[in-house]
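Re: the multi-chain job from yesterday

Posting the exact lines I submitted so nobody has to dig through the queue logs.
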Amino acid sequence: MRISARNILKGKVVKIVRGAVNAEVTLELQGGTQVVSIITNGSVDSLGLKEGKEAYAVVKASSVMIAVD
Amino acid sequence: MRISARNILKGKVVKIVRGAVNAEVTLELQGGTQVVSIITNGSVDSLGLKEGKEAYAVVKASSVMIAVD
Amino acid sequence: MRISARNILKGKVVKIVRGAVNAEVTLELQGGTQVVSIITNGSVDSLGLKEGKEAYAVVKASSVMIAVD
Amino acid sequence: MRISARNILKGKVVKIVRGAVNAEVTLELQGGTQVVSIITNGSVDSLGLKEGKEAYAVVKASSVMIAVD
Amino acid sequence: MRISARNILKGKVVKIVRGAVNAEVTLELQGGTQVVSIITNGSVDSLGLKEGKEAYAVVKASSVMIAVD
Amino acid sequence: MRISARNILKGKVVKIVRGAVNAEVTLELQGGTQVVSIITNGSVDSLGLKEGKEAYAVVKASSVMIAVD
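And the result, structure tokens for all chains:
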């Protein structure tokens, strides 16, 4: 499946913290940058996410803000 | 100002395409990955964005999805 | 690619209206319900979207609100 | 109240899972499609949501992505 | 219709700028604070929005970030 | 840091409820309006949020919907 989201960043799962309905999943991108995601526990299960697994952080362009110093 | 958004990725503006109300701003992160953002023209102006300027892509963790191959 | 977004609704593209940076894409789901999406023109092009093409509306669970009468 | 969100899909609540601050609410649309939503517990309470109740899934057009096979 | 979005701020439309698919709508809240919204032209039309009209800015709690100085 | 988000509303933290991964943070704006936000516990900690502290509610324009009676 290909998706309209313009930002698809390759990385590896380095941490998963589960709550009652949501989980915080941290990816480390190539180069060492970390990206934090909140998804449902249902998605963690259905994607079979676990530490060390390769995965992508996917972000719709309209969800990205820009900041300057 | 410090913000709750967990993802703040440093880069450089490489492209700005303006529409009537929104603009598409592309950042190139360190390492070469490109991130595409849709923000208002008002923000492009107030931040003084232009090609070559250093900037950050800012994304709330709840806006990040995870995908696997 | 499989994605964490919990809502993936199958349909067919019935209308595309392009602006300078964004496009409004309307899908008709099985059963006749229409779903309206705003994505970038770049995505319309890269996915090869056109009227009549089968496609999916994809929505992260945290973007769905609930209303009652 | 009428709202600008372009997607208002009628259904029935089939499942509610509560966490400490958020709840996962599943609606079944006419035709059988299920839609999953994450909203606050405060909203579950103030809307009086419970299994079997008629409700709508509401999604802003800019939160809808498109995917193709 | 009552909606799960936790933030419903009463104001008055003070400015509408239309693009090809999206419009930028500015509300002035009681007290003088301005809130800027991007919605589709289709919504501006269906809600009959125009300058001077009373309206509400509606924001899902998961779309609100917090910042400190 | 200055950010592209068009809506930056000044207030004071009046309530924080923590879950396992997310927290619900309520701000009271000048004039008495309350704004509810869902952010990660990690952000509550890194910003040092606590009741009584001055803070801003930050919302991207594309996350704001409009409603009318």
